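Summary for the steering committee. One of the milestones for this cycle was to obtain a three-dimensional model of the protein with 2-acetamido-2-deoxy-beta-D-glucopyranose bound, which we needed before selecting residues for the alanine scan. The sequence and ligand used are listed below.
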Amino acid sequence: MPRRSLLLAFLVVAGAAITANAKVYAPVDSILLNCGSTADGLDGDGRKWQADTNNNEWLGDAGKSSIMAAADELDSSLPSTIPYMTARVFTVETAYNFTVNPKDRHWLRLLFYPSSYNGIAPEDFRFSVSTSTGLTLLRNFSVWVTTKALTQGYLVREFSIPRTPTGVLTVTFTPTPMTNVTYAYINGLEVSSMPDIFDDPATMVGFADQTVDIAGATLQTMYRFNVGGGFIPPSNDSGLSRSWFDDTPYVFGVMQGVTYNAGARFHVKYPSEIAEYVAPVEVYTGTRSMGSDARVNQNYNLTWTMEVDANFTYVVRFHFCELLLNRPNQRAFDIYVNNKTAQSDADVIEMTSERGVPTYKDFAVHMPDEPGDEIMWIALHPSVALRPQFYDAILSGLEVFKLNDTAGNLAAPNPLPSKMLADAELGASDKDRSRKSKEQANMATVIGGTAGGAAAVGIVAAICVVVYHNKKTKELSGSESHTSAGWLPLYNSHTSGKSSGHLAANLGGMCRHFSLAEMKAGTKNFSESLVIGVGGFGKVYSGVVDGDTKVAIKRSNPSSEQGVLEFQTEIEMLSKLRHRHLVSLIGFCEEDNEMILVYDYMEHGTLREHLYNKGGKPPLSWRHRLDICIGAARGLHYLHTGAKYTIIHRDVKTTNILVDENWVAKVSTSASPSPAPPR
Ligand SMILES: *[C@@H]1O[C@H](CO)[C@@H](O)[C@H](O)[C@H]1NC(C)=O
Ligand SMILES: *[C@@H]1O[C@H](CO)[C@@H](O)[C@H](O)[C@H]1NC(C)=O
Ligand SMILES: *[C@@H]1O[C@H](CO)[C@@H](O)[C@H](O)[C@H]1NC(C)=O
Ligand SMILES: *[C@@H]1O[C@H](CO)[C@@H](O)[C@H](O)[C@H]1NC(C)=O
Ligand SMILES: *[C@@H]1O[C@H](CO)[C@@H](O)[C@H](O)[C@H]1NC(C)=O
Ligand SMILES: *[C@@H]1O[C@H](CO)[C@@H](O)[C@H](O)[C@H]1NC(C)=O
Ligand SMILES: *[C@@H]1O[C@H](CO)[C@@H](O)[C@H](O)[C@H]1NC(C)=O
Ligand SMILES: *[C@@H]1O[C@H](CO)[C@@H](O)[C@H](O)[C@H]1NC(C)=O
């Protein structure tokens, strides 16, 4: 069954190890606060976050008027429980004072996780964050509204603050005054010195003779991409603790170009004018270029699009490093920012004079407030007029920073989810909440339990550490209806298929271990009458667990080629993904050589069944169709941008879009094949 091995072959782009001689910046100041926690702890990347007790050196007496709280729910899209699962909640304006080296610029990172804390609903947190240097970083900010609109499980807001001559950086949290009581909160706070990587002025796009001075500005990081490469965690950056993301989801259109990686042994030669920590080696050893067909390349632009806030000036930093060519005019291209020429005839070898030498260029652009979404367009196109040897363009890294306005403000309004989406979710949200509060109770006990005696049963148990009791309400036990199991493949393009140690460390999964007896009882000893899908891997049954919770149970055929490793990989991957618009993996059973996966049951079957009136399914109203489309799109968007790694589904079709009892669309994300349904 070659198809299966293909489906399970998660594309692995091995992170090139940082070459041994690369220099790493050592910050003078480095404070990582695990806000609202009395204990120090390590995050998923092994970075240590300090306890933030009441009356500590940064908060002083102000700490007494604030509350130390724990998040009421755990979302598995969190990269780590530390520092996200605890928060300091402020009822009145409160400041942290940090003593900092007055000579350095500093990163200020604010980490937020949307949840209720100590029973305070997530909507009731609305606040501003400002500094003693007169900057407004966030205003009337709602983590809940923002994460919902962006479909993200958590938020990191990163600012680069210019030198603080007084030597004290004060960060103030102010609840927004409104008719209803509001609160402020913070989960993690990081202050660390950084090198001068914003010294040179940026050229204003469209006004070659004008520049924007960024040396005195505060910058907010909007996007940071390792173009043509994978995710680089803070611990693998060049000492600046930045996260670099895969650019693939932001490449516009079908023409995505090609990626190239020179490998870990490639020697990147940092010239003296570029500090080695502007970007890590890994950014420069991977590129995205247009492809090998000159005729095709002439007729398209390699384009990235990114949503930004209106009324601000942005600095776009392009990182280049030529990995293959040696001579000028072999590869020359034009750079467009927002459809205006930022630079024509860019030639990396001309800029660096040598292969393997990195360089970067900054351009500034103002985003006016125009109707519709504010989208920044970045495009590259071969400089055909120069007749270079190859009609091609190349990019290694891309960063977009927002600059403070003249009033020292960086805050923008909270993003709005589309109106239709807001309406659609209104009805379902109450149900969600009551279900979640049931989960909480169980979760708390289990986290405590695993921390103690984690030496559990076998490798798989070590992977799925958090027990997830999915006790659904009665409405599930309604009429018998069949889900044709179109469970399908998911490709995780940028993580290794066996990072189990890492996952175990960050308690990322929510995955329950079932006994074989429970599986047998739930399926009437795997009764043929309960089979709802068959494939090369085995059969899918509709079943019941915990008395009344309906589930779909996928049992691997003993003769199936799906090996233990694939089984574990699947659990590890799927248990990390949890979203309103994704079919959830509830748990697994590994006993007596059986490999069984347990998923949420989808009462209303597949979208296809409704569109083609299969199995007596009624046609859908236009309203439901639209809601299902939007829901599926949100599920996919979460896979692209909300999870820690970029995940490309690669098999989106109506049999992979399932509908639950509330007509909520769920994208199927199981990595197992099924026979292709008739189209
Ligand atoms: C980070 O660096 C370590 C050691 O250099 C390496 O083993 C690991 O694969 C890297 N991780 C990523 C995601 O690049
Ligand atoms: C922090 O700084 C502010 C203003 O400079 C001051 O009023 C406050 O007392 C300081 N708090 C602590 C704990 O030092
Ligand atoms: C904050 O935002 C909410 C809703 O977006 C709005 O109703 C309120 O007036 C805003 N408050 C302030 C002080 O801007
Ligand atoms: C204020 O609280 C009341 C009662 O808790 C609620 O009905 C109302 O919608 C809230 N108003 C706002 C603007 O959040
Ligand atoms: C941008 O500025 C204009 C004029 O000051 C204002 O009317 C508009 O509301 C602003 N837009 C945003 C998104 O803040
Ligand atoms: C750039 O051009 C595209 C079409 O090619 C258009 O959709 C987009 O709105 C333009 N962007 C800006 C910022 O003008
Ligand atoms: C590339 O983008 C520029 C700027 O938006 C535009 O003028 C040009 O027509 C585009 N070229 C192609 C082939 O799309
Ligand atoms: C940002 O703030 C600094 C200092 O407050 C100021 O000098 C600068 O002009 C501001 N930047 C912009 C783009 O207005």
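Key point for the committee: The first helix runs from residue 2 to 8.
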